[in-house]
Amino acid sequence: MLRYSRQLSLKVIGIEGQRKLREASIAIVGCGALGSHSAELLTRMGVGRLKLIDRDVVELENLHRQYYTEEHARNSHPKAIALAERLSKVNSEVEIGPVIADVNSRNVVSLITDVDIVVDGTDNFETRFLLNDACIKLGKPCVFGAAVETYGMVYPVLPSGPCLRDLMDSPPPPGSVPTCDVVGILPTVASMVSSQQITEVLKILLGKAETGKVLFFNPWERIFDEIKVAKRDDCPSCALSKFEYLSKEVKDAELCGRSSVHLSSRGPVDIRSLYQRLTSLQDLQDELRLKLSAYALYIKGRDFEMILFPDGRAIVKGADLNRAKSLYARYVGI
Ligand SMILES: [Zn+2]
C-alpha cells in the first residue's frame, strides 16, 4: 500500500475509500482528452478494473490534449489499445480492458452492464443521451463531462435522477453548439473537467454523490458556477423509464471538421483474408498501400485513407460520406 500512502492519509479517502476504489469497475466511454486523462488518474489511484471504450485512432492533432505519443499517431493506433498498453506499465495492479467499438443503441447496454460507474469521455450529445438512457435503465451512475474552447461542465447523474434529460430534453441540433474541431479547446480545461469527473466518481463510491447540480467553469475568465437541475415528473428517462435513445437507428457520421467519415458496421469483416485478397489483386498494386495490424486494416489510396476494423466499421479520411461509402463498397464489398 506504499504507493497509495499519500491517498490513504487523506481524510476524505482513507483505507475505506481506497478499498472501495480497488473493488470498483469503471467504464470510460470515449478516450479522447477527457477519457485519456480520466483513465490516467484512475489507473494511478488504483481503481480495480478499467474498461476503455473508443472507436477512433490516434492522430497528431490529438496530442496537445490527449495522453498519447507521436508513435501512436504515426501508426494510427486505436486509442483504446494505445491507452491500455501504456497504462498497464503505469500500474500493473489495475485490470485494464480495452474495447475498440462505436458505442451505439445496439451495443451500449452490453458494453456497460459489467461496470459500476460510467465516465463520459465522448464529444457528442447523441452518445451522451444514449449513455444517459442506458445508465438509468441499468441503475448505474454516470458522470458527464464536456470541454470546449475555454469552458467546461461536469454533471454527475445517479439512476434516481435528475438526469441529462432534466437538464436538456434533447440533443441540440447539429451545428448549433460549438465543437472543439471548430473553436478549439484549451488543454487545461479538458484536464480540469476530467479531474472533476474523477473526483465525482470517488464521491459516488463513498456515498457522497452530489446530484442535481452542474458544475460550470471557465478558468480563462475565472468563472466557477453551479447550476441547479430539478427532476421533472415527466422526464422520459429517470421518471417514466421510456428509454427512446436505446432504440435509435445507428447511423454513419461525418466527423466534424476533419474531412473524415465514420461508417457504422455492415457486419463483421475478416480483415486478414481481405488483406490477402487485396494484396493478390494485381491491378490494385499501384493504387493502394496496405498495412495489417492486430486491430485494423489500413488501406491507403492516393487521396484517401480507410481504417477498417474487424467489427466492420471504418474511418475514412479525405472523403465525404458518399465517396466513403463507395470506397467501402469497392474495397470491402457490400
Ligand atoms: Zn431525468
Secondary structure topology:
Elements: H1 5-8, H2 14-23, E1 25-29, H3 33-45, E2 49-54, H4 70-74, H5 79-90, E3 95-100, H6 108-112, E4 117-120, H7 125-138, E5 142-148, E6 151-157, H8 164-167, H9 180-183, H10 187-205, E7 213-218, E8 223-228, E9 253-255, E10 260-263, H11 271-280, E11 289-292, E12 297-300, E13 305-308, E14 314-317, H12 321-331
Parallel strand pairs: 1-2, 1-4, 2-3, 4-5
Antiparallel strand pairs: 5-6, 6-7, 7-8, 9-10, 10-14, 11-12, 12-13, 13-14
The protein binds zinc ion (ZN).
Terminal Cα span: 54 Å
* Portion in strands: 15-25%
**Helix tally?**
12
Low-confidence stretches: none
**Widest β-sheet, arrangement of strands:** 3-2-1-4-5-6-7-8
Report the CATH architecture of the largest domain: 3-Layer(aba) Sandwich
Q: What Rg, in angstroms, do the CA atoms define?
A: 21 Å
Please state the structural category: alpha/beta
Which ions, cofactors or small ligands are bound in this entry?
A: zinc ion
Looking at CATH, which topology of the largest domain would you report? Answer: Rossmann fold
Number of domains: 2
Number-wise, the strands total: 14
What value does the average pLDDT take? 93
The helicity comes to: 25-40%
Largest sheet: 8 strands, mixed
